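Both lines are given unchanged directly below:

***
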Amino acid sequence: MDIVTECRNPDPDVKDAFDKAIKLKEENPSESEKILRVCISKGCTDSMVALGNILSTGTDEQKKESFKLFTEAGNAGNIHGLRNSGYALALGIGCSKNKTAAAEWYKRAAEAGHAKAQCNLGVLYSYGNGVSQNDEEAAKWYKMSAENGYSRGQTNYGEYLMYGRGVKKDAAEAAKWFEASGSNRALFHLAELYLAGDGVPQSRDKAIEFLKSSSDGGYAKAMTFLASLIINEDRVYAESLYTKAAEKGNQTAIDALRNLGLPIPCVKKVRN
């Protein structure tokens, strides 16, 4: 969900009031809400989104008002209102969950140039949620998101290029987008490419370097991959990596620990 902290309303008084409301949001939420409502009465769509953000974590009635504010802002041309409407519909925040309607709102934001919405839309096409599954469409929106500088869009587009999904396979181009992204998942894929010498010069040292960076960032797949590469060189470090990955629920790491005769830790975080 987009969090709006800057007002683009041309009225300087509205801008000043908006800034005051944002500063008061934590220490005096009721006063912040009061100020934002005054700004809304003066046609400030950024205030609609800001108030929607605040209400989206409240009671059911507040969440419903939040969704209404997002859609009103979006229909008035506010790009953040467009994306937040899609987000709310995708998760059912203040409204019934509706992936088809979410896709429509995301598309409006994406067509207006919103990089995160472009990636959101790509994900929907990638999995066929709310739209017909279409890898070519997913790749198109991921590319737009990537070109607009969004890290997740860059990683996702890099994956499509890496695997030749929806676009012609191009490992060298994939590596460029992974480098631009720098996300833990992107670093993991860079390691795969360097280890295989696919699209980049083969280098085990660079692969390990990228895997260490990704592992330090908490990416469990990188931990297990790195551990498997260095188990004979640095068993203690490899075992620690398997343990950390297993704590995140990574099944490969759990199986590795079991095969090594080591204790299986309690899962702290399932997602990896």
User: Anything to note?
Assistant: The mean pLDDT is 96.
